[in-house]
Amino acid sequence: MTQSPPDTQPVTQPVTQSLSQLSPVLRTAYQRAVAQYWDTHTQDPVNLRLGEVDGFYHHHYGLGDYDPAVLEVSPDERDQRIIEELHRLESAQADVLLDNLGVVGPGDRLLDAGCGRGGTSLMAHYRFGCRVDGVTISEYQAGFANDRAVERGVSDVVRFHFRNMLDTGFESGSKRGIWTNETTMYVDLNELYAEFARLLPHGGRYVCITGCSNDVTGLRSKAVSRIDEHYTCNIHPRSAYFRALAANGLTPITVLDLTPATIPYWELRAQSSVATGIEEAFLTAYREGSFHYLLIAADRV
Ligand code: GPP
Ligand code: MG
């Protein structure tokens, strides 16, 4: 059962209908399909075995060079060493995201929009000492992440909610910082940034890490389409981010092209026992230039 943190929205509708019909969280057939994907992809070794390394479970990719020595150790140790190395690169990616949140104090509140199994939220809490809320449209993920927070004894300050990031229900101006770690390809950016503009006070910071298609090379490539199909997502072009941010009072302060730094992660993952089959599409898309791995930090003005 999913845990219900104290401020989870109550379900007030009549009990004669099924919960999925009633839920105010999942509003469209598309959102239900995405939620179903994450509610049923629960045994994914590429995410579980990496998370088991230290209890921080991620749903994003990695940054930085891998240690080539992991490919040369004895066959009985090789698999585990590669998994540990992939996990190190994924945690390094989350650190880069948090590096760009600006000054955050223990009294601040942060929002992880599309929190997955909660790894980045927990890292943010340990770094800044503040309260973090994560939202996900997967009840399974919210439950899993809350269990990790309970295990660590931080469930009073790190909470995961079965909520929609397009309509979070949190108070206006209540979040000093918000991030999306590879989740924006599941939503309309204008709707998303209107909600973030509401939640951030003047001067609040938003950080996005995303994969986006390259307007310069034209419409989406075959490799980008394969990624969309694999994850049931809709990768946006780079231009769409800047248009939607500007339209919603969010002004970029930092833009980093992380593409060169993520390619080693995919090269190592392609050689691992936890490869899922999507590795070649990422490598092709990045190498042919039809896709970028981008960080954007923007301030609410
Ligand atoms: C990784 O999640 C991210 C997504 C599914 C969103 C798509 C991201 C893009 C940059 C296009 P994951 O860790 O669950 O994926 P996997 O199971 O493949 O490791
Ligand atoms: Mg993963």
Secondary-structure map with pairings?
Blueprint: H1 19-22, H2 29-40, H3 45-51, H4 75-99, E1 109-113, H5 119-128, E2 131-136, H6 139-151, E3 158-162, E4 177-181, H7 189-199, E5 205-213, H8 222-231, H9 238-247, E6 250-257, H10 259-270, H11 279-288, E7 291-300
Parallel strand pairs: 1-2, 1-4, 2-3, 4-5
Antiparallel strand pairs: 5-7, 6-7
Helix pairs in contact: 3-4, 4-5, 8-11, 10-11
The structure holds geranyl diphosphate (GPP) and magnesium ion.
Mean pLDDT across all amino acids? 94
State which percent range the strand residues make up. 15-25%
What small molecules does the structure contain?
geranyl diphosphate, magnesium ion
**Helix content range:** 40-55%
CATH topology: Rossmann fold
Structural class: alpha/beta
Q: Would you mind describing this structure in some detail?
A:
The protein has 301 residues and is of the alpha/beta class. The chain has one domain (13-300): Vaccinia Virus protein VP39 (Rossmann fold). The protein is 41% helix and 16% strand. The protein is built from 11 helices and 7 strands. Strands 3-2-1-4-5-7-6 form a 7-stranded mixed β-sheet, sandwiched between helices. It starts with 18 loop residues before the first helix and ends with a strand. Residues 1-6 and 8-15 have low confidence and may be disordered. The protein binds geranyl diphosphate and magnesium ion (MG). Residues 44, 46-47, 59-60, 182, 185, 211, 227, 231, 233, 235, 276, 278 line the site of geranyl diphosphate.
Tell me briefly what this model is:
With 301 residues, the chain is α/β, with parallel strands linked by helices. It contains eleven helices and seven strands. Helix content is 41%, strand content 16%.
